[in-house]
Amino acid sequence: MTTALHLAAWLVALATVTTPALADNAPAFELRLDIDRDGKMDRAVVLQDNTGSADLNIYLAMGEENPGPSRKPDFVRKALTEDRVVDLEAKGKGSLAITSCFGCGASKSTEETLTVVYRHGQFMVGGYSRSWDWGNRTSDDTVETLLGDCDINYLTGKGTVSKDLEASRPIKGKFKPVLLKDWSYEKRPKVCEF
């Protein structure tokens, strides 16, 4: 009986512990990179709470130190995505790729990668890619699957799109860089919708 009570107490204690990725103000992802390409290491931190909203904080010239409560971020983008952030990666030329997903492999899922760059003293969206695998049940109880992807390079102004199983094709028109502070998913190109 005592063993069962101890086990129950441990289970209750474990259930009350929050995981760092879901606790308020706890980093879901952290990454060191030289995003402003000045030769000093910077730090990108994604905070995501259990409501799903993910915030991006960027600390310039952090080196190896950890940001403490007294150090304010040099850049903050609140509610960057409502989807679950699954990866933070440094890419070439100081760019930062933030990947998020909705459904994450379920029958209705999307994956998006937002590439952040620092150019002309501003944080900008340098690229955006999205892929989708969306199953819709029709009225005759069959499933219609929509597949596709798009890839936009805002720095070159070019992009590609593929729908269903067709090969990727260039998108007509030019894309202009977007300031990260102004980015919203409503600004993504219509061709990236399904």
Q: What is the CA–CA distance across the termini?
A: 58 Å
Q: State the secondary-structure class.
A: mainly beta
The string of secondary-structure elements, in order, is HEEEEEEEEEEEE
Mean pLDDT comes to 83
Low-confidence stretches: 1-24
Number of domains: 1
Percentage of residues in helical conformation: under 10%
Radius of gyration: 20 Å
Please outline the major beta sheet. Answer: 8 strands, antiparallel
How many separate helices? 1
Which strand-content bin applies to the residues?
over 45%
Number of strands: 12
Describe the structure.
This protein is mainly beta. The protein has one domain (19-192). 8% of the residues lie in helices and 46% in strands. The chain has one helix spanning 2-16; strands at 27-33, 42-48, 54-59, 75-81, 84-90, 96-102, 108-119, 122-137, 143-153, 158-163, 169-170, 178-179. Strands 5, 6, 7, 8, 9, 10, 11 and 12 form an 8-stranded antiparallel sheet that branches. A 4-stranded antiparallel sheet has the order 1-2-3-4, with no helix packed on it. β8 (122-137) and β9 (143-153) form a beta hairpin. 22% of the residues are buried.
Q: Quick summary of this structure?
A:
This protein has 194 residues and is mainly beta. It is built from 1 helix and 12 strands, in the order H-E-E-E-E-E-E-E-E-E-E-E-E.
